[in-house]
Amino acid sequence: MKENIKIPYFPGCTLKTKAKNFEVSAIEASKMIGIELTEIPKWNCCGVVSSLSTDDLMKHIAPVRNLIRVQEMNDSGQANGNRLLTLCSMCFNSMKRTNQRVKNKPEDMKSINDFMYLEKDYLGGVEVIHYFELLDEEILGRIKEKSVKSLKDLKIAPYYGCMLLRPKDIGIDNPEEPSVMENLISSLGGKPVKWDAKSRCCGSYHTVNNKDIVINLAKGIIENARKSGADTIITSCPLCAFNLDNRQKEIIKKDHGFRTMPVFYFSQLMAVAFGLKEEFIGLDGNYIDPKPLLKEKKLI
Amino acid sequence: MSDTQKMVKVYVMGEAYMVPEGSTIVGAFEYAGFQLKRGVGCREGFCGACATVYREKGDYKLKGGLGCQTVVTDEMYIAQIPFVPADKPIYDMDEITPDAGTFMNLYPSVFRCVSCNTCTKACPQDIQVMDYIQAIIKGDIAEAANLSFDCIRCGLCALRCPAEIVQFNAAILAQRLYGKYIAPKSPELEVRANEIIEGKYVKELEELATMEKQKLVDKYYNREIKIS
Ligand code: SF4
Ligand code: SF4
Ligand code: SF4
Ligand code: SF4
Ligand code: FES
Question: Per residue of chain A (300 residues), what is the pLDDT tens digit?
Fold first, then answer.
């Protein structure tokens, strides 16, 4: 058996504010399978979506600062392996993209390092990974072993959205046929649902200025899950969660016949399967109340 | 001033003046004949009224400091900032909550922070300005209030911020939220507040308000300072 994993972890601001249930469930469920997430010191917001325009280097300062924190942890022996783990798909995407950009463009790396003269230079050695990338055979085996409550009656639609898969050289899995979430669901004893909308866009930040776009997209995604037999959807992104979960409030207003569907962070279902205390599952943070479904399936 | 007083050259708004070595920036202004109506207050480094930007000879950095605390150097370029225009929304402390959402409504610019740390570099009080802005973004209001505690609202951070954030006003909000909703309540404070409401200090205050200036000055400098 492999040793336990202790890894520097970047929570991101949403997990500290609107998605506390994501963080608590992930940290507690991880402990059960020998993964210890160490919050990096003095991290700053990842900047959400880093600018794609080439002349907007400013937006890449924030991610690089976080990468320097990891570099320091490795230099001082607080961590090893030079990896930085994220839970939020959005943080993963923006930090990995910045990392790739400065590694591929030494002149950008130099500009940023020169600008941040109070920091040690970033040397490009850190690797940004998403939690799902830890889920190899060994860890999936531990998950199976710790799943004391079987999710066998729960049909779960894994929702990847875009941030985990696109662009291709950032993505953690096959962009057309990803399977990492399915593997997790199976290890938890649940039934992964095959469905069409698993990497369809949820509308992302249109939710701020163009709510209606998101309401329509979310409705389509949830109905596709329902049609494919799902009881629930899981995600690893607080923005997807907001769009798919909270926006159901507006969907019902528009379509009285709409049947709501609970949406979980994947880690919440890990916590459920591992039989953790309710405060570690964080069900009160979900908009569509998931308790009736979990009760019906005898999971709480 | 003795004849041997060494002088240094400074540029005030681009024009050269000879001023005594060792002067503060405020002192240099006045020596050069300017009368400061704005941009100076306590002269003790407490009020934050005297924000100044300057460049020193041979250094490419634009620095900021308190005019009353910063000593001039030869060939220094100085410009005083009498006032920093800043966004200041009105809010009712009873109707807001100590969380990131409150800042999202009242100071949305805070969430534009790009973590460049320019504000921290500009702060004459050595406050970790970026860190308190980041604490607000993370919803850690207590941390933001504590980190910004020494802020004297000089405004230099806001002047330099590329994201147009008004750090010092957001800091006041964090401190108010901390005081009202997070800090442990002090029973002594309530007792003292009631004494004040009941007029315990009215007489003394009236005496001070009508006191002859010299007496007031003597009284101030001879006051008893209790250090507990
Ligand atoms: S995803 Fe959003 S909220 Fe989270 S750290 Fe990144 S930018 Fe901040
Ligand atoms: S660093 Fe200065 S010159 Fe360069 S883009 Fe920013 S403001 Fe303009
Ligand atoms: S935080 Fe800003 S306003 Fe406050 S003292 Fe520092 S520079 Fe001045
Ligand atoms: S100067 Fe503005 S953008 Fe830069 S770190 Fe400070 S608050 Fe953030
Ligand atoms: S005059 Fe008050 S701080 Fe300088």
Answer: 568 999 999 999 999 999 999 999 999 999 999 999 999 999 999 877 656 666 788 999 999 999 999 999 999 999 999 999 999 999 999 999 999 999 999 999 999 999 999 999 999 999 999 999 999 999 999 999 999 999 999 999 999 999 999 999 999 999 999 999 999 999 999 999 999 999 999 998 899 889 999 999 999 999 999 999 999 999 999 999 999 999 999 999 999 999 999 999 999 999 999 999 999 999 999 999 999 999 999 999
Beta-carbon contacts of residue A79 (< 8 Å; ≥ 6 apart): A6, A7, A8, A38, A70, A73
Q: Which CATH number applies to B7-80: 1.10.10.10, 3.40.630.10, 3.10.20.30, 3.40.50.1240? A: 3.10.20.30
The structure's pTM equals 0.86
Burial class (CB in 10 A: 0-12, 13-18, 19+), B199: exposed
A262: nearest Cα among A293, A284, A285, A236 = A293
Q: Residue B114 is nearest to which of A13, A42, A58, comparing CB atoms?
A: A58
Q: Choose the final residue of a domain: A113, A131, A149.
A: A131
B117 → closest Cβ in A17, A45, A118: A118
Pull the structure tokens for residue A39. Answer: 């919050």
Give residue A213's domain range: 138-296
Contacts of B134 in chain A (CB under 8 A): 43-45
- Say whether residue A58 is in contact with chain B using an 8 A CB cutoff: yes
Which one-letter DSSP state was computed for residue A258? P
Domain(s) of CATH 1.10.1060.10: residues in chain B = 100-182
Q: Which residue of B has its CA nearest to A56?
A: B114
ipTM: 0.84
Task: Indicate if A156 and A220 belong to the same structural domain.
Answer: yes
Residues A270 and A219 in one domain: yes
Q: Which residues of B touch A13 (CB under 8 A)?
A: 100, 137-139
Nearest residue on chain B to A65, judged by CA atoms? B115
Q: Helix H segments across B66-106? A: 100-106
The yes or no reply on domain B100-182 and CATH 1.10.1060.10 is yes
